[in-house]
Amino acid sequence: MTVLAEHIESPTHVQPQEQQRSPRPGWVSPALGVLLAVTAVLYLWGLDAAGWANDYYAAAVQAGTQSWKALLFGSIDAGNAITVDKPPAALWVMALSGRIFGFGTLSMLVPQALMGVASVALVYNTVRRVSGYGAGLLAGAVLALTPVAALMFRFNNPDALLVLLMVVAAYCVIRALDGKPTRWIALAGVAIGFAFLAKLLQALLVTPAFALVVLVAVPGSIWLRLRHLAVGLIALVVSAGWYLALVSLWPSDSRPYIGGSTDNSLLQLALGYNGLGRVFGGDGNPGGSSNSEGGPGPMGGAMFGGSTGLTRMFGESMGTEISWLLPAALIALVAGLWFTRRAPRTDRTRASLMLWGGWLVVTVVVFSFMKGIMHPYYTIALAPAIGAVIGIGVRELWRGRQFVASRVVLSAMLVVTGVWNFILLDRTPDWLPWLRWTVLVGSILVSAVLLAGAHRLGRWTVAVAAAGLLVGLGATAAYTVETVAGNHGGGIPTSGPPRSNAGFGFGFGGPGGQGVQASENSELKGLLTQADNRWAAATVGSHTAGSLELATGTSIMSIGGFSGGDNSPTLEQFQTYVAAGQVHYFIAGNGPGGGHHPGPGGDSGPGTQITEWVKQHFTAQDVGGTEVYDLSAQN
């Protein structure tokens, strides 16, 4: 063990500048080209089959192509009644693409897929700067072949931009180790600030690891390192705060209501429903569950994270999304930190492990114990860290394979991966039943060869390494290909083959429900396309509104936001809109109860009040089986 530690800590182990000056091996460029080409094929293949993916965000993207104000604020409708319940950074990218190329599935989703390719390239380059080309390629491959990554880089949720910006920040922190730390740490802060504008507080989960690396590994005195950290913090605050200030200072009566908030404030949304409420429950989030039967509160079930606790990332909800290589990554992290415990303060390998390992551990702990809403696809945030730790760990341990300790850790990583992947594959026993046995037996055989002394096999050592990679990545790669080949829509997509607890098309894009029925009503669509009001129609909740917007290209007011519980518009505001002729129709039948949170008004909120008022003052008509009220013809 001591000999291995000395090998890893030796001066020849960390010479990034020398590596950068030395000629790149001839195999690197073709290998990197293959990695990025395969990633592009995986993430772009059959992308149009996804349809609108998540209709909730697709409707907001469409609105952004019709109204610059809707694009700026992330409105779900071009009439600018209410925003989606996230900041708009991800919508900016997709809507601008739609304005340039025309709004459609491909113009919306191709930027997301390209973010995935860019993330793989950046993970490769970040790991390569410290641990070499092979480690970088392995890290990028693990990210590309993670099922939840293939799922979400082909989807229109904000997670794609979030992950890309967090990886950009990680790259900047690693660059700060080489020189000019003030510049690179400031750029890392800017990247995290804009990641905040993609998905709020989730972007900050990586900052403890980044701060630790700056304080421990950046050259210079402690006061200089603290100054660098302060610069990064200021850059983060400015790059996120400008938009918070803009929303706060903009007159509230001339912008859309901030969906998901209780007081029309983006800051309250960040700290409440989409922030601390996700961690501790409350603020529109259901409470956590500690039993094995279901997930948080009344939402329950695997689609809302399952039961909280240390095993959550390995459970029915999260396991097949992200945990294929998670046990191996944790083993590699512990071993790497142990072997480098006596390294100099500025040791780059240890710094890299602290960065990616800290990212991994903090995110796993928060995701495992958060009591609010926790969807399985959130775990894409773990994929870059798992890939990087695997790449760094395998490279360092393989370099020391002549030592028993190194071979033991490598063998343990491979066997644990084989056993765990067998368990994960057994959750879908009818899908490729031979694969789980192949992975299990193969991992045991290769690990036995490693333990026996693969370093003595000469040219056959390369074959052993290739076999280890094949059995180690085989299961996650197969699951990723199945994800790409399938059709994963709805508000809560899941990867891999169909499962009894998966495919819950929550709200938008899901099976059944008023939203889907109304959007398929040709008579209703014809009626709406003839309306030239600010809002062709209004309906409670976003389920029907978004689907109809996409089907007709018109602006539909979603009363109460996503689930109908937000306090916008009030009854008085709605009456003013109707009196001014700004809303033509009211579509009944999609009230609260199907959304994320009941909102401040509950059953007596604006959705219920407006529905009752409309029914009292207007006459219902049947339009293709949908109950519709013409608000231009009062009784």
Structural overview:
- With 635 residues, the protein is mainly alpha-helical.
- It folds into 2 domains: 2-17 and 29-485, no CATH class; 513-630, no CATH class.
- It contains 26 helices and 5 strands.
- It has helices spanning 2-9, 16-21, 28-44, 55-66, 68-73, 89-101, 105-131, 133-144, 147-152, 159-176, 181-199, 207-217, 222-249, 266-280, 319-322, 326-339, 348-369, 383-399, 404-425, 433-453, 460-485, 513-519, 522-529, 542-552, 571-579, 606-617, and strands at 535-540, 556-559, 583-587, 620-623, 626-630.
- The chain has a 5-stranded mixed sheet with strand order 2-1-3-5-4, with helices on both faces.
- Strand 1 (535-540), helix 24 (542-552) and strand 2 (556-559) form a beta-alpha-beta unit.
- Helix 7 (105-131) packs parallel to helix 18 (383-399), helix 12 (207-217) runs antiparallel to helix 13 (222-249) and helix 22 packs parallel to helix 24 (542-552).
- The model is unreliable at 1-20, 288-300, 502-514 and 590-602 (pLDDT under 50).
- Keywords: Cell membrane, Glycosyltransferase, Membrane, Transferase, Transmembrane, Transmembrane helix.
- Residues 85-240 form the Glycosyltransferase RgtA/B/C/D-like domain.
- Residues 530-617 form the Putative mannosyltransferase YkcA/B-like C-terminal domain.
